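ok trying this again, last paste got cut off
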Amino acid sequence: MPELTSRRGMLFGTAAVGAGVLLSGCTSNESDDEPASNDQPAADDKSGKPVTIGFAGPQADHGWLNAINDNAKSRAKKYKDVTLEITEGSNDTAQQIGQIETLINKKVDVLVVLPADGKALTQVGLQAMRAGIPVVNLDRIFNSPQAYRCWIGGDNYGMGLNAGHYIGEKLKNKKNARVIELAGLDNLELTKQRTQGFDAALKNYPNIKKVARQAAEFTVESGQAKMSQLLQAQSKFDALWNHDDDQGVGALRAIDQAGRDDFLMVGGAGALSAFQAIKQDDGVLKATVLYPPTMAASAIDLARALGQGKGVGGLAEFEIPSSLTLYSAVVDKDNVDQYMSTGFK
């Protein structure tokens, strides 16, 4: 998963689904009973002021990033009054800056930007804002609040915190419980935040000790390799938290190859494969903590609202908030059916 933000502003909604439902009321011509699934219409047949939204994101070289693009495209298609100008995703900072400058020159009404590098793209965000084009900064945050009108993204610290509490509650009555952690890229701030949240939660359970931590690279291959190392080094443990469901596919392969089933596993992000395994409930994976890619659909809702001069349905303010932090819900066998439609491949 890509580098995300440390900013946690307003808690908005109770889960990935909740974000889509609440933000769908951004304009006054919305239906009041929008279904939770992003596959369903986001609005009724009534249209407002036409809005052209420019969307620029990084290269979709990860399941979560691909889901970000899909959510943005499908949401925009559901609005008759929205035209989406989408760039070809790039992880090259200079190339993405050029793509955004092209959108600025086209005079789009609103920009939605998930920057490859928030710090490096701050100036182009400022450029857009100075040109009178409001920016919805998606997930990876710009260095200056002047570079965006609204930020929306996930909560990495909260993701670790909720994973830790879930594991803690499962093991609270077990004496000398041992847990391990399969993290993501250690040079990313998001990885540090997830670990910090996880460690903070475990402090509430004095019977639990984290005995090992290994950093992977958010890929299937790295997940398998690093999990194999953990399994060889740790002959006995009670729970595993894996930061990312994509690398979790590899981790589960390593676990199967080792013939291990003596612990519970919690994943992260919300991949469809994880939801399916949780529902099947015949392996070690018992839950995953969401980092919902539906935030991209909500970013389109926010951009449309900005373009039409509307606020958010359900809130008293005339303007949309400046910051929206999505909740990292825990999905297990008890609620997995609710989230199945949001799972990414």
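PB: full thing came through this time. Confidence is low (pLDDT under 50) at residues 1-45.
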